[in-house]
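Re: the multi-chain job from yesterday

Posting the exact lines I submitted so nobody has to dig through the queue logs.
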Amino acid sequence: MTRDDQSWIGEQTIRGITQFDQAMISAYPESDAYLQGAREYLRTVGETCNYIAAAEKLDWKACLPHDAKVLDIGCGGGWLVAMLTRIDTVRMVYALDSSRHFLRTLLPQVVELMNGHPEKIVVIEGLFQPLLFDDAHLDAVVASSALHHADNLESVLIEIRRALKPGGRLVILNETPWPGWRHLVSVMAAAARVVRDLLLHRYRPLSPSISSSGYLYDPKLGDRDYPMWYWEKALKAAGFSIESVMDTGMPTVKGSKGRPLIHFVCRVA
Ligand SMILES: C[S@@+](CC[C@H](N)C(=O)[O-])C[C@H]1O[C@@H](n2cnc3c(N)ncnc32)[C@H](O)[C@@H]1O
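And the result, structure tokens for all chains:
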């Protein structure tokens, strides 16, 4: 070691993390307005989209044990955090996300607008994994439209299971898995586009990628598509039993013909 040795790893890691909100604004500039203000954000998730309405279909009191310590992983602007703090049997909610903007700017305002209880919230600026909780620390984990952003779904699920108490609950909500055949059609269409781009020498610094374990269809935002069977197998492989799968019948955007939002209620097996 010399006096000039330096460690860049920590800072490089922070700078290297794609911030979802910034990626969203550069890829979809129209999203700037709703990501800047809590009212606009809530209007988008609650009025333009069905995220809040679909979450309200779940019987949360039945899903969460009494006096529950809950982690909302990939909580974004915190509408679900706010909702959960209003449940009297919830003791505390860890609000984890990699976006500083969501956590520091939007979440406090969203919690206030939704009449949530800020004293029950612990904000964690962090990644899906590793989770810096002791084994069996949590009673429940919730994830709304978040886990399809994981680079490796199964390893995040295994990490969640480690942090949950025996019998603890995992509620994955607002995902949009295709049936197996429909996923296959969309992957084949993507493969055809890859072949076309190669034949045309079309340069793309960042492109979707396909594999038998998922389809990264939006590399800017890190959105992956998994068919229903893959979610089920990954959950089982990570040590969860699936108690129920709820098809809300609600598309992401109200009034659209999109895929329905699906919830998985799971328990540590
Ligand atoms: C589609 S948004 C969903 C946000 C919120 N749960 C909701 O339902 O509105 C996905 C969220 O996951 C977060 N995220 C993506 N990858 C992450 C990672 N590896 N670690 C932590 N958060 C991540 C993003 O910052 C973003 O807030």
